[in-house]
TrEMBL record, chain A:
Gene behind this protein: LOC115626166
A Pfam family matched in the record: RNase_PH
Name of the featured protein: Exosome complex component RRP41
Top-level taxonomic group: Eukaryota
TM ranges: none
Entry's Gene Ontology BP terms: nuclear mRNA surveillance; poly(A)-dependent snoRNA 3'-end processing; rRNA catabolic process; U4 snRNA 3'-end processing
Cellular component, GO, one term: nuclear exosome (RNase complex)
SUPFAM superfamilies in the record: Ribonuclease PH domain 2-like, Ribosomal protein S5 domain 2-like
Molecular function (Gene Ontology), one example: RNA binding
Family affiliation: Belongs to the RNase PH family.
InterPro entries to which the protein is assigned, alphabetical: ExoRNase_PH_dom1 (IPR001247), ExoRNase_PH_dom2 (IPR015847), ExoRNase_PH_dom2_sf (IPR036345), PNPase/RNase_PH_dom_sf (IPR027408), Ribosomal_Su5_D2-typ_SF (IPR020568), RNase_PH (IPR050080)
Exoribonuclease phosphorolytic domain boundaries: 22-150, 155-219
TrEMBL record, chain B:
The keyword rRNA-binding belongs to this UniProt entry's keyword annotation: no
Compositionally biased tracts (Basic residues): 972-981
InterPro entries reported in the protein's UniProt record: Dis3_CSD2, NA-bd_OB-fold, PIN-like_dom_sf, PIN_dom, RNase_II/R, RNase_II/R_CS, RNR_Ribonuclease, Rrp44_CSD1
Name assigned to this protein: Exosome complex exonuclease RRP44
Cofactor: Mg(2+); Mn(2+)
Alphabetical GO biological process terms: CUT catabolic process; nuclear mRNA surveillance of mRNA 3'-end processing; rRNA catabolic process; rRNA processing
Subunit: Component of the RNA exosome complex; within the complex interacts with EXOSC4, EXOSC7 and EXOSC9 of the exosome core complex (Exo-9). The catalytically inactive RNA exosome core complex (Exo-9) associates with the catalytic subunit EXOSC10/RRP6. Exo-9 may associate with DIS3 to form the nucleolar exosome complex, or DIS3L to form the cytoplasmic exosome complex. Exo-9 is formed by a hexameric base ring consisting of the heterodimers EXOSC4-EXOSC9, EXOSC5-EXOSC8 and EXOSC6-EXOSC7, and a cap ring consisting of EXOSC1, EXOSC2 and EXOSC3; DIS3 associates with the base ring of Exo-9.
Organism encoding this protein: Drosophila lebanonensis (Fruit fly)
An example molecular function term from Gene Ontology annotations: 3'-5'-RNA exonuclease activity
Keywords tagged on the record: Acetylation, Cytoplasm, Endonuclease, Exonuclease, Exosome, Hydrolase, Magnesium, Manganese, Nuclease, Nucleus, Phosphoprotein, RNA-binding, rRNA processing
Name of one Pfam family that matches: OB_Dis3
From TrEMBL, chain C:
Gene Ontology cellular component list: cytoplasmic exosome (RNase complex); nuclear exosome (RNase complex); nucleolus
Organism of origin: Drosophila lebanonensis (Fruit fly)
Transmembrane intervals: none
Domain K Homology: 172-211
Residues making up the signal peptide according to the UniProt record: none
Biological process annotations from GO: CUT catabolic process; exonucleolytic trimming to generate mature 3'-end of 5.8S rRNA from tricistronic rRNA transcript (SSU-rRNA, 5.8S rRNA, LSU-rRNA); nuclear polyadenylation-dependent rRNA catabolic process; poly(A)-dependent snoRNA 3'-end processing; regulation of gene expression; TRAMP-dependent tRNA surveillance pathway; U4 snRNA 3'-end processing
Exosome complex component N-terminal domain mapped to chain residues: 30-66
Family affiliation: Belongs to the RRP4 family.
Protein name: Exosome complex component RRP4
CDD domains the record matches: KH-I_Rrp4_eukar (cd22525), S1_Rrp4 (cd05789)
Assembly information from the UniProt record: Component of the RNA exosome core complex (Exo-9), composed of EXOSC1, EXOSC2, EXOSC3, EXOSC4, EXOSC5, EXOSC6, EXOSC7, EXOSC8 and EXOSC9; within the complex interacts with EXOSC4 and EXOSC7. The catalytically inactive RNA exosome core complex (Exo-9) associates with the catalytic subunit EXOSC10/RRP6. Exo-9 may associate with DIS3 to form the nucleolar exosome complex, or DIS3L to form the cytoplasmic exosome complex. Exo-9 is formed by a hexameric base ring consisting of the heterodimers EXOSC4-EXOSC9, EXOSC5-EXOSC8 and EXOSC6-EXOSC7, and a cap ring consisting of EXOSC1, EXOSC2 and EXOSC3.
Name of the encoding gene: LOC115620454
Subcellular location: Cytoplasm; Nucleus, Nucleolus
Keywords, ordered alphabetically: Cytoplasm, Exosome, Nucleus, Phosphoprotein, RNA-binding, rRNA processing
Source organism phylogeny: Eukaryota, Metazoa, Ecdysozoa, Arthropoda, Hexapoda
Length: 249, 981, 298
């Protein structure tokens, strides 16, 4: 029984009872804070993330000269987010990496030409880590950006995918599946445009499988996008209705 | 489709972590029954309404739900094709997986057999059958409850489908669901919850049509033993063991029973180099060879030394209770040993077993011991492996099983039973039958040898097979070259062929053409998986267990003469001094001009009148091979020797007729040289192309201590063996020549061989480059490329090579380090087992050969031991022990005392002296070989000294010795033949 | 002194969404990337972009059509200034001939020295002396009220205070809310009947101060600050109550304008000022105010 653990039972169910293509249960909420310009809370299964957006505001320091928007991200994982307590919530290599990746993916979505000499700060805090931390963080950040009214090309969402031993692709990898040794692929995409903003693999995939795994992750992205979109609309209806659509009518 | 209810599970481990995991419950899991009218069935119906099993307990059609303990204990019953319509719950499956991976594998095989109608129901994720763990509930109780809930649910679920009017009109009986459990508590609760329930044995016994099935039931207790007094100290619980290990009061290791003495064993513990000795029945405390045990070290004053006594258990009978007498006998033995140990000062750490961490019981081959009482169902089983204790079983077929080799498995070993309890699994066939004996060898060495399944065969090319124009287009056409193959006589799986021709620039083109097996075996299909599992072809005497079906091994892949075949070619351009100028690899079509034996090839080379292309080509090859060999030797490659023999086997009775030592000709070494060259060239190539996942073979340098016996033995003869490097070793071996003993050098080399490590397959990414070294061949890198028909490693290498030159596409598994590592692991294991099996087969045939024969043979003393001489008989490649002293031979101790012949052992120069006869290592002797068949399971070859003659010890030559033949002197009775390792 | 702290359980959370109930007519909302309509014949405005010959939304919000100009207005965003808007702003830096001020917009805004009324008459020339005196007029941290005079190319707002009603703010409280919550009206300076004055900056900054006498207001062109005058306790309480009411309305996502604040203030009278920080009280005020506003509309 050495080596990789089988992620998919012969009955076609994964360790937590999902079928290969199923996402985890997603819950999300926008506008959870008053202070920042935009904020969101997102749960994907047991991975729980808070995101806050400040800006766009005047870029500080020398960066003022550049005409592009500066996207400043911070990824931090609460010390209590994993089953074994983390020592450093941020600043470790993984967090630094994620921060870069967040910036990379978000800059693909934000209409940067509209924000010269500006800066957007995105703060992400993982409260509970149960796999696909980066993907959920990005999804939460997207919601927070939308909440802040920042112009985007479209939703930028991320999803993970893996491959079972029997070469069936699996969507939205949970922590247990991650640590059980399956390969992990993370895709951040603009689903409508079918553009990939960011892609990361935990190990090499064979070229024969890469395409199907990416397609699985993309399908997951599309599904997440639809869920987020519905959530955004619902949120808008709620706040808009409260004010009787204020200036609209 | 998906109910999004979330559940949490908490598990604790180590420093207590709370782990919360999601657990999705679903409403789309079908019940798998064709009766059901509710479920969405995503599967073909596994459970049917047809029911032909008559049970006197449940007189209506029913499905069975099995409890975990039933699966674990009664797997042999389940494997019989009797029970059908069985529901396996995932709760049960997970528990089984956790407890025993081998049983898990077996139950899975049953489940996969569609005809058996086993259905796996994912009760853990079904919304109605999930059981949340309640506070204060143990995991076990929770699982039991989950099983009951699922059973109940099934019963109700099916009932609800069987109430319709149309069903009632059909007049069929309502199918119910029955729970089988051997857990009394679970059973009682199930009864309270109105679940139909029975124990496995009740149920099996209620099946009137299958009376023999009861034999396969696992027994926890035997009726007459219930009141018997405990004979063993109790085992500690697992928790106590863990606690003890933590506090360093206990030690853990794997138990190895002694082959010679059933009351002795050894536990390999990390900190103790030699392991810890266990002596006496109570200290052994029911451990069986291979078990992982926990032991307690005895105080140093009680340490003992391994007895050199051979002690075999006498026959006992099933209904015997242990007699006072025997206990007494054992005590005497122990005392003797201890007394000896004090003097000996060879005392080693001694301990006693206090608990079992993990049982490593498997199935054992053996025979039934004839019973004194007729018509009893209780019997004693004697395993073939002497390290395994006798096993008590219950069977009603004793009469038919007498004189058959049978397989038995151990169920448990209660404190009050002298022997473990087991049950009969199956019979292999009559004792002494060649097929049965081969089967035993294959089973004991875990060689997969069943017929290729239909599915596997379906991936074979359809006959008649022809080469298509596309094939020609993809391959280099080498049909015009003078390619020929050289192999041993009678070889049908020819996987290599050679050619050599002169080029216009004066250089030579040498080609090695290997059967293109990977063309026929596509990755991932059943054929490939089967080949990967088998790993290698196993050669027994007169029998070959193929790795790939015969159509491939002896026909399509075999490079027979005059037929067009696909090959993978490795072609070099060399100058006359055998320096490689260019090399290339490509797939090709070849047409071997001739398939020759080594002898034929040799004749062709030597016969100067022959001047055809083949002869020329062979002569070139031969000349190049000699240069290559010399170069290799200069690099420090070792010439090793191991006595190899061939049996001429009677084609009808499969009994050996003649023994001959394999002869080595120039041509053998010629072929070998080019195979080595091809392997090395390919190894370099794939290691460069696939730095992470190339399959290579390495041979580690043995640790210097391994050479100690060799250095000592040589020193007594006045030779120094240098073991610093392969080169110095090789040189010093060359110097070991004695004019008066032509076989001396060979013997030294045989000894050297035994110092070596096993060569193993590995994956390039898993080791540092320096560790790739092949010690024996003195090659920095090596792999196996040249025998894809009989080795799976070569198929993998072929695929890698094909991918690297663009002749074939890669696939995921090929480039994955982990899965390749697993494969290598299996290949190494199979390879080792195949070797052992081959040797066992030779041993078996040697015995058969000597049956009823008695021969005097020339031999050499290989080692001089304290009480014996290790004798090698070159003619048969046979090695055995000639005992000089029998005083360590327990039973015959007093007889020995009378003997007047006394041997004196000298520590200094390792000699045995008796009167004026002195035995040195490597001295020639003549011994008489005969077969001792007094034990039907363990026939032994007996060595007796003929020359030099020692009165009162040597057998008398000439006619008067005939009397001895019939009844060998008792002093020789327990000598055993040791096969070389 | 004992302090009463109210800690509510997460379980007793107030469901803010309930305020959104009973809406018959819901406008269509769009999310980023969603197609609004084909480009042909329309002009794209804020919150939209053109891709593949379609006008798409770039923010989440409601569509606004002015003739052929299509724009999508997010329900929440940074302040996007328009000429003529009243803003409350804070000075963050004194520069050459201008102040840099924070108006909660994307970029910092500027207040040119030439856009303020200097003491000594409207038509006075700006001398070099004035430049040195800038810090005396407005220092870092000072709050001002102003109007958007101009929008520079990159979106920087230029403010002016050359009206008596604008200028430096004296004693009072600043409240920040989302700009979208401030209703765009003609009047942004209100003297509430309850006795406090509010400046509802379009940028979401709201200034609450004690109501001054008519003659005092903005009299000196806006650089005087009277910090020595003691505002009586009851006035301070009113100011505090107004602040809490505004925050309550903001929390409930209700629009802020004089009437809504007035209603909220009246509804709040049944609570103590400090109670107005409690979630259910906020909810109650929101609900009552909403009901009254709806009644008033009908």
């Amino acid at each position: 029984m050495a080596g990789r653990f089988e992620l998919l039972s012969e009955q076609g169910l994964r360790l937590d009872g999902r079928r290969p293509h199923e996402l985890r249960h997603i819950k999300c909420k926008m506008g959870v804070f008053e202070q920042p310009d935009g904020s969101a809370y997102m749960e994907q299964g047991n991975t729980k993330v808070l995101a806050a957006v400040y800006g766009p505001h005047q870029a500080k320091g020398k960066k003022t000269e550049t005409n592009d928007v500066i996207i400043n991200c911070q990824y931090s994982q609460a010390t209590f987010s994993t089953s074994e307590r983390k020592n450093r919530p941020r600043g470790d290599r993984k967090s630094q990496e994620f921060k870069m990746y967040l910036q990379q993916a978000l800059s693909a979505a934000i209409k940067s030409e509209l924000y010269p000499r500006s800066q957007i700060d995105v703060y992400v805090e993982v409260l509970q880590a149960d796999g696909a931390n980066y993907a959920v963080s990005l999804n939460a950040a997207t919601l927070a950006l939308i909440d802040a009214g920042i112009c985007l090309n479209e939703f930028v969402v991320a999803c993970t995918a893996s491959l079972s031993k029997s070469n069936i692709p699996l969507t939205d990898i949970s922590n247990i599946e991650e640590v059980s040794g399956g390969p992990k692929l993370t895709v951040a995409a603009l689903p409508t445009a079918e553009k990939i903003a960011f892609l990361e693999m935990s190990e090499r995939f064979h070229i024969d499988h890469l395409e199907t795994v990416i397609e699985t992750a993309m399908a997951g992205c599309r599904e997440i996008r639809d869920i987020l979109e519905a959530a955004v609309k619902e949120h808008l209806i709620h706040i808009g209705s409260a004010a009787d659509w204020g200036r609209v009518c | 489709m998906q109910t999004l209810r979330e559940f949490t599970r908490k598990t604790k481990r180590g420093n207590i972590l709370k782990i919360v995991r999601e657990h999705y419950l679903r409403d789309d899991i079908g019940c798998g029954s064709d009766i059901c009218q509710h479920c969405f069935q995503n599967d073909v119906y596994a459970l049917t309404a047809d029911h032909d099993l008559q049970s006197s307990l449940f007189k209506y059609p029913h499905y069975l739900v099995l409890d975990t303990n039933v699966v674990l204990d009664q797997i042999d019953v389940l494997e019989e094709d009797v029970l059908r319509n069985v529901i396996i719950l995932t709760t049960v499956l997970n528990e089984v997986k956790h407890k025993s991976s081998s049983i898990y594998k077996r139950i899975n095989e049953i489940i996969h057999d569609r005809r058996r109608n086993f259905y796996v129901f994912v009760n853990e994720h079904h919304k109605d059958t999930y059981a949340d763990r309640e506070p204060d509930e143990t995991a076990n109780d929770r699982n039991d409850r989950a099983i009951r809930i699922a059973t109940k649910w099934y019963d109700n679920h099916l009932k609800s489908s069987q109430v319709s009017k149309s069903f009632q009109r059909s007049g069929r009986q309502v199918t119910r669901v029955v729970l089988l459990t051997d857990d009394a508590g679970n059973r009682a609760k199930a009864e309270a919850e109105d679940i139909l329930v029975a124990t496995a044995s009740e149920y099996v016994k209620s099946l009137s049509d299958h009376p023999l099935l009861a034999d396969k039931l696992s027994h926890k207790t035997f009726a007459n033993e219930k009141q018997a007094l405990p004979q063993y100290p109790p085992h500690l619980s697992l928790r106590e063991i863990l606690e003890g290990l933590k506090q360093k009061k206990l030690l853990q290791g794997s138990f190895q029973a002694s082959r010679e003495n059933y009351l002795e064993g050894n536990v390999n513990v990390e900190q103790y180099e030699k392991g810890i000795l266990i002596q006496g029945r109570e200290s052994l405390n029911r451990a069986v060879d291979g078990d992982i045990v926990a032991i307690e070290l005895l105080p140093q004053s009680e340490w003992s030394a391994p007895s050199e006594i051979v002690l075999e258990e006498k026959n006992v009978y099933a209904d015997d209770l242990p007699s006072e007498e025997r206990t007494e006998e054992e005590k005497v033995m122990l005392q003797q040993v201890r007394a000896a140990a004090v003097v000996d000062a060879e005392r080693t750490p001694t301990g006693r077993i206090v608990g079992i961490v993990r049982r490593k019981w498997r199935q054992y081959c053996g025979i039934l011991q004839p019973s004194l009482i007729e018509d009893t169902s209780r019997h004693i089983f004697v395993p073939a492996d002497r390290k395994i204790p006798r096993i008590r079983i219950e069977t009603r077929q004793a009469a038919t099983l007498q004189n058959q080799r049978i397989i038995v498995t151990i169920d448990n070993w209660p404190r009050n039973s002298r022997y473990p309890h087991g049950h009969f699994v199956r019979s292999l066939g009559p004792l002494g039958d060649m097929n049965t004996e081969n089967e035993v060898i294959l089973l004991e060495h875990d060689v997969p040898h069943c017929k290729f399944s239909e599915e596997v065969l379906s991936f074979l090319p359809k006959m008649p097979w022809t080469i298509t124009p596309e094939d020609y287009a993809k391959r280099v056409d080498l049909r015009d070259l003078y390619i020929c193959s050289v192999d041993p006589p009678g070889c049908t799986d020819i996987d290599d062929a050679l050619h050599c021709r002169e080029l216009e620039n004066g250089n030579l083109e040498v080609g090695v053409h290997i059967a293109d097996v990977s063309h026929f075996i596509r990755p991932g299909n059943a054929l490939d998986k089967e080949a990967a599992a088998r790993g290698t072809t196993v050669y027994l005497v007169g029998k070959r267990i193929d790795m790939v079906p015969e159509l491939l091994s002896s026909n399509l892949c075999s490079l027979v003469g005059g037929v067009e075949r696909f090959a993978f070619s490795c072609v070099w351009e060399m100058d006359k001094e055998a320096n490689i100028i260019k090399k290339r690899f490509h797939k090709s079509v070849i047409k071997s001009k001739r398939a020759m034996t080594y002898e034929e090839a040799q004749v062709l080379i030597d016969d100067s009148t022959q001047d055809n292309e083949i002869a020329k080509s062979l002569r070139h090859l031969n000349r190049l091979a000699k240069i290559l060999k010399k170069r290799r030797m200069d690099n420090g490659a070792l010439v090793l020797a191991s006595p190899e023999i061939r049996f001429q086997v009677d084609s009808e009775t499969h009994e050996p007729l003649e023994v001959e030592v394999k002869q080595l000709r120039d041509t053998n070494s010629m072929v070998e040289e080019f195979m080595l060259l091809a392997n090395i060239s390919v190894a370099e190539h794939i290691a460069a192309e696939f730095s992470e996942c190339a399959v290579l073979r390495r041979h580690p340098k043995p640790p210097t201590t391994n050479f100690d016996p060799l250095i000592k033995a040589a020193r007594y003869q006045g030779f120094e063996i240098e073991t610093e490097t392969g080169l110095s070793l090789s040189h010093s071996l060359d110097k070991c020549v004695k004019a008066d003993n032509p076989y001396f050098n060979t013997m030294i080399r045989i000894l050297t061989t035994r110092c070596m490590m096993q060569a193993v397959y590995f994956i390039s990414g898993s080791l540092q480059k320096e560790e790739f070294f092949h010690y024996g061949l003195a090659a920095p890198i090596y792999t196996h490329f040249t025998s894809p028909i009989r080795r799976y490693s070569d198929i993998m290498v072929h695929r890698l090579l094909a991918a690297s030159i663009g002749a074939d596409s890669t696939y995921a598994q090929l480039l994955e380090r982990k899965s390749n590592e697993e494969l290598c692991h299996n290949l190494n294991y199979r390879h080792k087992m195949a070797q052992y099996a081959g040797r066992a087969s030779v041993g078996l045939n040697t015995h058969l050969f000597f049956r009823g024969k008695e021969e005097d043979e020339e031999g050499y003393v290989l080692f001089v031991r304290k009480n014996a001489l290790q004798v090698l008989i070159p003619k048969y490649g046979l090695e055995g022990t000639l005992y000089l002293k029998t005083d360590k031979d327990g039973k015959d101790g007093h007889e020995r005392a009378k003997s007047t012949v006394v041997f004196t052992f000298s520590e200094e120069d390792h000699t045995q002296r008796c009167g004026n006869v002195v035995f040195h290592s490597f001295d020639p002797v003549t011994v008489r070989l005969s077969l001792d068949s007094s034990n039907v399971q363990h026939e032994k070859l007996v060595f007796r000294l003929v020359k030099p003659y020692i009165k009162g010890f040597s057998v008398e030559t000439g006619s008067e010795s005939a009397a001895d033949v019939a009844a060998p002197p008792p002093t020789k009775k327990t000598k055993k033949n040791q096969k070389k390792k | 002194m004992s302090v009463n702290a109210t800690i509510s359980l997460a379980l007793d959370r107030v469901d803010w969404n309930a305020l959104a109930g009973n809406q018959e007519k819901l406008p269509r909302v769009f999310t980023p990337g969603e197609v609004l309509m084909p480009e042909a014949g329309f002009m794209r405005g804020h919150g939209t972009f053109v891709e593949d010959e379609n006008i798409k939304a770039s923010v989440a919000g409601v569509i606004e059509k002015v003739n052929k100009l299509i724009s999508v207005r997010p329900l929440k965003s940074r302040y996007v200034g328009e000429i003529g808007d009243v803003v409350v702003a804070r000075v963050i830096e004194v520069q050459q001939k201008r102040w840099r001020v924070d108006t909660n917009s994307r970029l910092d805004s500027v207040l040119l020295l030439s856009s303020v009324n200097l003491p000594g008459g409207e038509l006075r020339r700006r001398s070099a002396e004035d430049e040195q005196m800038m810090r005396q007029y407005l220092d870092e941290g000072d709050l001002i009220s102003a109007e958007v005079q101009n929008i520079f190319e990159e979106g920087t707002l230029s403010l002016y205070t050359r009206s008596l009603k604008y200028g430096k703010l004296s004693q009072g409280i600043l409240v920040k809310v989302f700009p979208a919550l401030v209703k765009r009206r003609k009047m942004h300076f209100h003297n509430l009947s309850c006795g406090a004055s509010v400046i509802l900056g379009n940028n979401g900054y709201i200034w609450i101060s004690p109501t001054k006498n008519e003659d005092q207001e903005g009299g000196e062109g806006g650089f005087a600050q009277n910090l020595s005058e003691v505002v009586p306790r009851h006035e301070r309480e009113i100011i505090a109550r107004v602040r809490n009411c505004i925050l309550a309305l903001a929390k409930c996502k209700l629009m802020l304008y004089d009437t809504s604040i007035q209603y909220a203030f009246e509804e709040s009278l049944k609570y103590d000022v400090h109670e107005l920080l409690q979630q259910h009280v906020i909810y109650d005020i929101g609900e009552q105010t909403q009901a009254r506003l709806r009644d008033a509309d009908e």
